[in-house]
Amino acid sequence: MKIIKVKKGQILQRNGDLNSKVYQVESGLLRSYSIDSKGKEHIYMFAPEGWIITDNVSSDVPADLFIDVLEDSVVIQRDKDEIIVTDTEKLIKRIGVLQKRIIMLMSATAIERYEHFISTYPDIVQRVPQKLIASYLGITPEALSAAKGSRARK
Amino acid sequence: MKIIKVKKGQILQRNGDLNSKVYQVESGLLRSYSIDSKGKEHIYMFAPEGWIITDNVSSDVPADLFIDVLEDSVVIQRDKDEIIVTDTEKLIKRIGVLQKRIIMLMSATAIERYEHFISTYPDIVQRVPQKLIASYLGITPEALSAAKGSRARK
DNA sequence: CAATTACATTAATGTACATTAAGAATTTCT
DNA sequence: AGAAATTCTTAATGTACATTAATGTAATTG
Prior knowledge:
The structure is a homodimer.
Chain A: E1 2-6, E2 11-13, E3 21-35, E4 41-48, E5 52-54, E6 66-79, H1 88-107, H2 110-120, H3 122-127, H4 130-137, H5 141-152
Antiparallel strand pairs in A: 1-6, 2-6, 3-4, 3-5, 3-6
Helix pairs in contact in A: 4-5
The structure holds a DNA duplex.
């Protein structure tokens, strides 16, 4: 267990690393994302204060995700094996969030995804550039800009 | 706790129901799915023997998902509150699976998703019609048929 | 086992979003 | 504050997949 201060832009974990760490955000903002075969980034999650972020593949397998720092942050870094999860309640909640996200990705349009996002994470919207939100929603920044435009126009 | 025999086509849970149940599949095959605003089905998961299937929204909220029966099955039905999850390991694994699925939905083409599916769930492919696999992958049956065609042709 | 119903394939047309590119606005840095 | 870099917007063009529809094939059921 180690408390570390990290700076915006710093990369805590790279795709392919042995991923043995779990990060608990005390203050600031982290994100995890993947990079696909065409070099495009896809944000998997944002982690503001109070959140836990890690790569949920088993710890003996190379990481799928990158984890980096969006705002100067203080995080508690722990080894996966030194963690005993007591709060299964929280895990089940997270599964619920992922379930919603999957349904969303399969059925919702660009605008619908955006509206759902701002109502679910209003604070994040203020804190990160729009193109990162687009990346989380699974659309391009241009498409998001256009969607917002057509929404305002009515 | 109740052991029940269910027949193909039977619906165990509907969208909007108070969803207080968890189903453990002893034999057979269940699935969960949502229906979007345009009436389209989107399969969230398949649950063959040994799997647990439920709607992961909190039990005091109406269900997002339908759960129904794809093959005559024997399932153990439990109330959510009578369950104490001991195997957090399993929950974390499931989060890992959902993570992969989300990345997949955001970055992979129709064929890539299909290939990933058949290598991950080779048995399911044999047991359900292709249109259900398409629904799980987030594409139409027509698109899947076309993707398979162009793949074979090289 | 004939009749019905469900499923798969193919092809034509449509559409939401991607891509590319360029200029405007905002933020960051020295 | 001013320069540089990043981000946002707009518009033209492209593309993967959706939709619709028709035909063929396999699976169910009476």
